[in-house]
Write a sequence for this structure.
């Protein structure tokens, strides 16, 4: 579940969305909407897991921009049933180290 996935009606007008990796924060539902439409990239979301209850929800997902996957976590805080803050963290995929190959199983 991310602000994108749940729809604009469930986002508080005063929402803040920090994008930690970019060192940015977007404030307000309209600014978040505008920033989504301004991005020229083709985006796809693949949700891997959603955990949460009440006013705190965490989503693990793969956000793919123009075919390039980025492993992502969204932390959503709700007030009065609406998203009041969403913090997103992104990590690019990398090849695993051969030194630990005997102890791991590959995920895809």
């Amino acid at each position: 579940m991310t602000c994108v996935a749940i729809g604009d009606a469930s986002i508080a007008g005063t929402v803040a969305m920090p994008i930690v990796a970019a060192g940015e924060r977007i404030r307000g539902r309209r600014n978040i909407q505008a920033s989504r439409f301004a991005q020229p990239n083709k985006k796809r979301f693949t949700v891997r897991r959603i955990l949460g209850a009440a006013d705190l929800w965490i989503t693990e997902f793969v956000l793919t921009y123009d075919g390039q996957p980025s492993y992502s976590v969204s932390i959503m805080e709700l007030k009065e049933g609406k998203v009041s803050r969403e913090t997103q963290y992104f990590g690019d995929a990398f090849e695993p180290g051969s030194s630990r190959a005997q102890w791991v199983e590959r995920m895809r």
The beta strands are 11-19, 24-27, 43-53, 56-65, 68-79, 82-92. The mean pLDDT is 81. Residues 3-93 form a domain with the Nuclear Transport Factor 2; Chain: A, fold (CATH 3.10.450.50). The two ends are 21 Å apart (CA to CA).
